[in-house]
Amino acid sequence: MTTKILGGVASAPMVHETNIEGIFSGRVRFEEAAPVFNHPLYLIGFTNRCGSNLLAGYLRSTPAFDGFYEQLNHDTVGARLPKLHAETFPDYLRAISQNHPGNGKMIGFKASWDQLRMLLRWRIDRMYEGGIRMIHISRENLIEQAVSWSIAFQTKQWTSQENALAAAVYDESDIDLRLSYIMQSNQNMGYLLALSGIPSLPVRYSDICRDPAAVVRSIGAFADVDLQTWEPGASEIRKQGGDMNKEFVARYIREKSHAIGFAPHQTTILSSPMSVL
């Protein structure tokens, strides 16, 4: 029963944990008695295509935060390491935070559920006074998110700053797979947060699109910093969703609801806000 409850959270180390451990030849745990940083580590907990890059851009534009890139990805660690001369993973985190042009801002990272588990296993929370604090962003409409991910994976256009390298086609099985992964990842993240007792702030993508200032102010309150006067400027990235997203979402809803045995309301298909990243 315990194994069934834990599910993926109790699984073997995944790609980032395995490869980063290999990069540092196992020297990945923080073993010092005192914290290195005098503030908590703020993470944006994310799944693919949930709006995390949009949120990260807004947070970087505040006087309190910087970073929130994917510095915990194994390929990023491997690429940056030669210039940092870090011998351990804690050294790497110290180097990228201290070398970052943040002008005294708190440097945060993006983290998937398995990267959060990796940080906890390696005692990285002990590096930060106040431990880890999580800003967990998610989307209400998981079908839109899965369709967006399927399209981006095929085109290789992950943000509006990039050009599409290929065309996308409707692939029901691919959307199914990505939808299942999103749901499992959100569940794993919630379970880890509950298990670890890490303070977390849930953020909805639709709220960011509707009122980014209100969302950022709530994050400021969560972090005990005053962001009441912050106002959004031009975003670093634009929303990407268009007619193809709408077409694929409508087709998926129509075909899946028919297979289950009911007909969706037409307004369900046509009125959903397609602010898709």
Automatic annotation (TrEMBL):
Keyword hit for Transferase: yes
Keyword Metal-binding part of the UniProt annotation: no
Domain of life the protein comes from: Bacteria
Keywords of the record: Transferase
Record-level Gene Ontology MF annotations: transferase activity
Signal peptide as annotated in the record: none
Sulphotransferase Stf0 domain segment(s): 42-254
Any Pfam family matching the protein: Sulphotransf
Identification of the protein by name: LPS sulfotransferase NodH
Organism: Paracoccus sulfuroxidans
Upper lineage: Bacteria, Pseudomonadati, Pseudomonadota, Alphaproteobacteria, Rhodobacterales
